[in-house]
Design goal:
alpha/beta; Ribosomal Protein S5, domain 2; Histone, subunit A; elongated; disordered C terminus
Length: about 525
Amino acid sequence: MGFARTCSVALVGVEGVVVEVQADLEPGVAAFTLVGLPDKSLIESRDRVRAAVVNSGSEWPQKKLTVGLSPASVPKSGSGFDLAVACAVLGAAERIDPRELADLVMIGELGLDGRVRPVRGVLPAVLAAADAGYRQVVVPERAVAEASLVPGVAVLGVRSLRQLIAVLTDEPVPEEEDTDPAAEGRPDPLLAGLAVPGSGIGAERMQGDRVPDLSDVAGQHGARRALEVAAAGRHHIFFMGPPGAGKTLLAERLPGLLPRLSPKESLEVTAVHSVAGALPPGQPLVDRPPYCAPHHSATMASLVGGGSGLPRPGAVSLAHNGVLFIDEAAECNARVLDALRQPLECGYVVVARAAGMMRMPAKFLLALAANPCPCGRHGTLGGGCECRPSTIRRYRARLSGPLMDRVDLRVMVEPVARSELLAPTQGAESTAEVAERVRTARDRATVRFADTPWNTNSEVPGHELRTRWRVAPGATAQAERDLETGLLTARGMDRVLRVAWTSADLAGRDCPTAEDINWALELRTGIRRGVAVVAG
């Protein structure tokens, strides 16, 4: 009787569970049994592993073979267990010393020829292994860069099972041909399974050389200023205006105003994109805020996460630490939009399905855009809107009150005047210039929140904001009157104060003045109160 064990990782959403892969050989009729709640793709690993072992020059044991995946109560899915199963079988057959396998974590899919193929979710899997105390992992060579992002873990990258056997048995490591189809203009078949068609649901990370620049936007000085405040304080923003006024143009430039991700944020974002199959080849780390713009016909599952079997990350998770932009928001299903209310408050989403429950990060900056009416011409000069008042009310009611109460900035985007559209744009501020002011404002907030768990103004609880950091005397007089008359809710009052603090940070002031608060009130209520100068 032979026995060996090694380890791999089962992913449940973006969190990993270390799984012990045990192989047991006993005398009897040759058979291969795989137990431990495997899914269909994992059950098929029996045939892949057998072919890979034989084609790697090793003999397949002709005995009764049982492979167990422990803990058996955790569902296992995917092909990333192949490498661990093959090595456990070879250890039980004494082709490899079982003691060499016990402290290793192995992640990778096996081809029938023994090549080791990369799989999705390598980064969160290695993070889970490190948290469990493991310090050595074996991954496909193409995934070494991603796995190496985890500090304190020794990563071994292999091209084939033959190479791994040689390393574990102290034999000369054979050279494997490293063909690069990309050099010949062909797609790499080893990377085919990493990007799942349709899984990106409109995700665009703005990772290319050409980032949309704010200097391309003609006019819209008020909307540009609100966009700057949204970036500086992570305030949710809503653009309303006629078609062609520049709502989408403005929202697409919001990610460029955000600071680069911190190392911790980069790991979180990369883990989500790796699991979702949205991590671009050759780019193991996402270091810029992601931008996700799902179509307005997106379903509940595609937005918050879901799907058959264990839930997959949705658009709110793909936009984690970045921007989620929903264009034509009034055309969206009202129930789907209202599903954003919880993640907007807590920064994560818990998706419960029959196959299991999954918690995924969803701390994003929400940007909404909508027309004022179905035809889009309501309120415009010479627009000729023919929509009935009842139709306009129903159209705007698709954006529910509870959802809009969580949006700090509500901006009316007016049509661009001819003089602004045709004027030279050399004097327009670029994304880099505005981003520098945003960075300076965030630095001021960071100093203010040095001994707290918060980083930006939008995260500070209302009670702390009202009692710990005071505004200028008498600055809240108008806001207090609006609160008393019911024009402003308690949550709205807190959000007005947060926006006012961001306005003060951008202007270099130590605390908000009445001008800052009145400008924040104007954006929230739509009633003109006065405008604050937010840029220095």
